[in-house]
Structure to design on (321 residues):
């Protein structure tokens, strides 16, 4: 069913990227929640720089002016300004730098999922002593990220191809921070959202380490079921779980950054102070003060959603309920 949906929504030739549409949302959400943002049937109006049907995606790189966008079918996965390649285009990617505030002194970071590499290359630039590892499923995505999205080929930014969970299972390494940002065109890999997977992630954290995951959805109301199930699952594994919404609290569909750690959550005033200190050391560190101030520490209903497990993780059904 997922394959059929991807083929049905996949574009064939050309597509202009509107600001409203280019929000890194699954086309399922855009079909359900906004009549003006349906997935485009083609790439009309854009210059197609690269297109290929890989083992996992109907992948394309399109350009409008200086803005390049990586697309999986009808979804917008990553974007960059070719004239300013280190400036992030999607606000949620800046929030992965919260790891530097929740875990001061972070020296090692693992990204599961690469896309166009907006966050890894930004952190690579902002923190010269930071070692970044990336596990990306699709080798074509890796090639495209380096060729079209200015992801550096550097020993401090090591990219490995393969399934992220399998990569974690085969290594005994630990990291100060693990960032999970994995999507297909119209959903997430269920095996990277389960209780068992998060237990594995926790085992691969160094003391005081932090996990961040990008989830698309709402915190309450229509379109919240998948996010709330993921939130419930994180709470079953980690003693501290907080949420940083990109667009503020509410029932709107948006990128929600889940932050989980074994330590108590630092006060928002501490995070703000740590941001000022970090900005003084790295002048290119992004301004994430509004999402810091809008942190959600609890009150998210979870009684009507399941804990996701390897035996039962209906992520697709929760997405469309």
């Amino acid at each position: 069913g997922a394959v059929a949906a991807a083929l049905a929504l996949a574009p064939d030739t050309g597509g202009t990227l509107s600001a409203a549409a280019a929000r890194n949302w699954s086309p399922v959400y855009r079909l359900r929640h906004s009549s003006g943002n349906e997935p485009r049937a083609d790439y009309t109006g854009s210059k197609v720089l690269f297109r290929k049907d890989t083992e996992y995606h109907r992948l394309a790189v399109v350009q409008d002016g200086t803005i390049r966008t990586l697309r999986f079918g009808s979804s917008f996965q990553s974007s960059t300004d070719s004239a300013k390649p280190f400036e992030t285009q999607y606000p949620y990617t800046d929030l992965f730098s919260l790891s530097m505030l929740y875990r001061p002194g972070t020296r090692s970071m693992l990204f599961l999922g690469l896309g166009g590499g907006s966050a890894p290359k930004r952190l690579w630039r902002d923190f010269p002593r930071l070692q970044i590892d990336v596990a990306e499923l699709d080798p074509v995505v890796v090639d495209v990220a380096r060729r079209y999205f200015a992801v550096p080929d550097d020993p401090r930014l090591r990219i490995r191809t393969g399934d992220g969970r399998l990569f974690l299972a085969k290594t005994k390494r630990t990291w100060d921070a693990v960032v999970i940002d994995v999507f297909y065109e119209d959903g997430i890999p269920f095996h990277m959202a389960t209780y068992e997977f998060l237990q594995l992630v926790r085992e691969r954290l160094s003391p005081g380490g932090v996990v961040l995951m990008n989830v698309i959805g709402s915190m309450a109301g229509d379109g919240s079921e998948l996010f709330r199930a993921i939130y419930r699952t994180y709470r079953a594994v980690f003693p501290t779980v907080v949420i940083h919404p990109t667009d503020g609290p509410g029932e709107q569909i948006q990128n929600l950054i889940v932050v989980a750690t074994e330590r108590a959550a630092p006060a928002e005033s501490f995070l703000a102070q740590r941001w000022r200190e970090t900005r003084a050391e790295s002048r290119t560190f992004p301004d994430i003060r509004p999402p810091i101030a809008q942190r959600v520490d609890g009150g998210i209903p979870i009684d009507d959603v399941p804990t996701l497990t390897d035996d039962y993780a209906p992520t697709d059904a929760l997405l469309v309920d």
About this structure: Residues 268-281 form the longest helix (14 residues). Residues 21 and 37 are 6 Å apart (CA to CA). The radius of gyration is 18 Å. Confidence is low (pLDDT under 50) at residues 1-22.
